[in-house]
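Lab notebook: predicted structure, single chain.

Context: the supervisor wants predicted structures on file for every construct in the current expression panel, including those that have not yet been purified. This is the next one on the list. No modifications to the sequence; it matches the entry in the shared construct table.
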Amino acid sequence: MKLYYKNKNAFVESQTEQLLTGYRRDLQINQPEHLELWTTNERLVEECQDIARRYSIEIISIGEYTYLPLLCNEAHGRIKANYKNGQRTKILYVADLSLDGWALLLAIINTLHQQMKLMDMVNCERCALNPEQVKKYELPYSSLEKLKVSDSRKSDYIEIFGDMILELNEISPEILEILIKEAIEENLNMETFREQREIEAFEINEIAVLKGEVNKAVEIYTKDW
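Prediction complete. Output recorded below exactly as produced.
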């Protein structure tokens, strides 16, 4: 935003151009659950932000374990607000197919369900990476056994996920986008979503008409300045 203007006319023109622009409806209205996407991968936040916004979904970057308490504290208020509005919160978790990627989700669930007592208000689902997706898209992966990793969690991990290890950074942007889109649409009532999008389009037109009327009024008022 400019700090200084040539004159009052330039200021009014600048302000009316920006007036009543940028409206976006919350397209998750009337959904049984309010979705958030949490990921450990910064690249995914950058590359999939536009996709998430199409569905009015926020992408939360988890980062390191040390940030988890802060993120859960921030989520606490959102989860409570969603529940008050009649929606449970559902966290779509996206992380490496790895020991740490698995353990972090368990830590999130423990924090939100056990420590914060939000079990009735929030659900967490690992939507990527999963062994089924690795097989479906024929993604190259490493063998946990061959890496000879010494970790007490190893046997439990193999029982759940098999011998696969794969980082999100090793997947192409195109595949990542597909995985995110699939995860979101599997958890939305798409008929309700399309209804909300139609309402948004109608409201945007109404706002455009209002903006035109405001601009006319401003032109009339400032004609003799």
